[in-house]
Amino acid sequence: MITVNALGSFALVVGLLTLTPGLDTALILRTAALGHRRRAWGVVLGIQTGTLGWGVLTSLGVTALLTASHLAYDMLRWAGAAYLVWMGIRLLRARRRSSGGAGESAEPPAVADSSDSFPGGWRQGTVTNLLNPKMGAFYVAVLPQFIPPGAPHLLAGVLLAGVHILLAIVWSCALIGFAHALRNRLQRPSARRFLDRITGTVIVGFGFRIALGD
Questions:
Q1: Who has the most CB within 10 Å: 146, 159, 164, 211?
Q2: What is the pLDDT of residues 10-29, one digit of tens each?
Q3: Are 102 and 189 in contact (CB under 8 A)?
């Protein structure tokens, strides 16, 4: 079975990955900053559902087939890129429409994904994670190195993915707590417009990075 040293080494690798600012961080912060805590937790658990899915698929060898097949990988890459660019542009366009002619005291109209819905957040987080081929490539490259010979691959893979999920949830608690502490400032119309511009730009940027294969 997996040794304590192997678990610690894996936790260090995925811990550094979790702390690196990226798409998940931007999505969680933006959702929590709107004051939608149920949806924010839906996004968090959706992302971790995707992480568990990648762990299971990697343990079963499915993601190795994905990375070995250029056609399958490119199809997932382009689907993920298109989804992220669409989501980012929708944020940018919605915020631009809400700011047109609105004063500082005006409350911008709700965008399509702004309802405080746990299922909606879960779907968004899950789709965002599963359509990110870089997650699959990361798990294919890293996960097998920590599974000792003779160990049941599925059980070991789920255990390692569980470590990743646990660390990510702890970090998500900190992000949501930070956004909640600043909720009064972040929910001002000007702050929300700025946050949506930043988040939309980050998401579009990630979409283009995936499309270009960077």
A1: 164
A2: 999 999 989 888 888 888 98
A3: yes
Distance of CA 80 to the CA centre of its chain: 12
Report the alpha-carbon distance of residue 199 to residue 101 in Å, rounded. 22
Phi, psi angle pair for 204, to nearest 5°: -60, -40
Average pLDDT value for the chain: 82
CB 135 within 8 A of CB 17: no
Terminal CA-to-CA distance of the chain, rounded, Å? 35
* Mean pLDDT calculated for residue range 20-43: 88
Q: What pLDDT, in 10s, does the model give residues 122-154?
A: 999 999 998 888 888 888 888 888 888 888 888
Residue 103 lies in a domain: no
What tens digit of pLDDT does each residue of 58-109 get? 888 877 766 667 777 778 778 888 888 888 888 788 656 555 544 443 333 3
Count of structural domains, the chain: 1
